[in-house]
Amino acid sequence: MTGAPDHKPPLTVLLCSPRGFCAGVVRAIDTVERALARYGAPVYVRHEIVHNRYVVESLKAKGAIFVEELDEIPDTDAPVIFSAHGVPKSIPAEAQRRNLFALDATCPLVTKVHREAEIHHKRGREIVLIGHADHPEVVGTVGQLPAGAITLVQSVEEVARFLPRDPGRLAYVTQTTLSVDDTADIVAALKARFPHIHGPHKEDICYATTNRQMAVRQMAEHCDLVLVIGSANSSNSNRLVEVARDHGAESHLIDTETQVLDEWLEGKRVVGITSGASAPEELVKRLVSWFRERGTTDVEEFDVIQEDVRFMLPKDIRRELAARS
Questions:
Q1: Is-contact 237 283, C-beta < 8 A?
Q2: Scanning 19, 161, 245, 284, which has its CA 20 to 30 A from the CA of 236?
Q3: 319 three-class SS
Q4: In this predicted model, what pLDDT tens digit does every residue of 45-87 receive, in sequence order?
Q5: Catalytic residue at 137?
Q6: Residues 97, 70 share a domain
Q7: pLDDT tens, position by position, 190-211
Q8: Does residue 98 sit in the same domain as residue 164?
Q9: Rounded CA gap, 135 and 277, in Å?
Q10: Active-site hit among 68, 137, 157, 221
Q11: Domain count, the chain
Q12: Using an 8 Å Cβ cutoff, are 180 and 209 in contact?
């Protein structure tokens, strides 16, 4: 399945930067690990804490139990953690009703979108959410408000079919992990149809999604092939593959180096590597080692922008850490 050691390697491997974990993912994973260290196993997590198989399996090995719904969790004093993607309001309400010890690891940038939607609703505006149906972040955002308050649109074509209750009282918000280019087209279509629509004061697509797409866009122009490390259910990882292809490179999404196919490398001279915002750097190192074992010596960083964003842990975890210090 993978390339044999005597397979002729590419001459150059480019390592895209920035890549990998964003601040929201670091915060979410730290929340689970700190909870395990403080309270011991098990710690329950509703939905995958982040969309990466390697991360989820690593946390399972440490004692985390992943569930899709709260009714899978027995009555317990163990922590119950909400994933980085956010949850509908009904979930913390149910946790409170059952007296579960809930810790909210929702990314602060997702929480920002939730608060924006609430403000628009209080001001009497119908809300358009640009996003992907059934993605947990979209489910969580829609679940912040009463049924019918938010309409999901996924394309310019859906904008054309959208019939608001009052075209003069509209606002839009977006999922944080979308394609920057595709979202810009949808926003432009909304503004063309509804010139008075209200948007966010600062774009909702998160800094990490924007930065990683910008870096891949630039790197892809120098590559024959771009390998994106990330799981199939990771929205931001899939968008990186699309961006690379849109800018001239063949591109594939892989969980690990074991999924690289010989045929992808035939005739290639420059291979770019990046990773989604929920993929650990360990997987990048393994892929680089895979190439080095096959004779690649030219491995270069392709730096586009430096990131220094950090988010604080949830207040309950911070309180416990402070009490122990």
A1: no
A2: 161
A3: helix
A4: 999 999 999 999 999 999 999 999 999 999 999 999 999 999 9
A5: yes
A6: yes
A7: 999 999 999 998 888 899 999 9
A8: no
A9: 16
A10: 137
A11: 3
A12: yes
